[in-house]
Amino acid sequence: MKKIYYLKTCDTCKKIIKSLPNTDGFILQDIKEEPITVKQLEEMHALTGSYEKLFSKRAKLYKERGMKDMTLTENDFKQYILEHYTFLSRPVIIANNKIFVGNSPKNVTAAIEYLSNE
Description:
By secondary structure, this protein is α+β, with helices and mostly antiparallel strands. It contains 5 helices and 4 strands, in the order βαβαααββα. This is Arsenate reductase. Belongs to the ArsC family.
């Protein structure tokens, strides 16, 4: 599978996608227009081993709801991601059985290097 979950209104996501090599054949899914399904989230979880790794603690709602002071379980992370697109750390790039989550420079570099060798 070759897929990128992103927000088309996010300049960072657009910049990262533009920087990726060899993206022909990738499916782009704007998670605001087409929310992720339980099955898709479970596929991402199978590759990361953790819903927390897929969860964005930088989301505006995370701060607004005072979630940093809460003790969240893996199931909580899963439910929040399914509840609102903003809780998914973006972009999520899946190429074959490799997954790259979020926009940290280290992660983006790793995705670029991996895709360069595809």
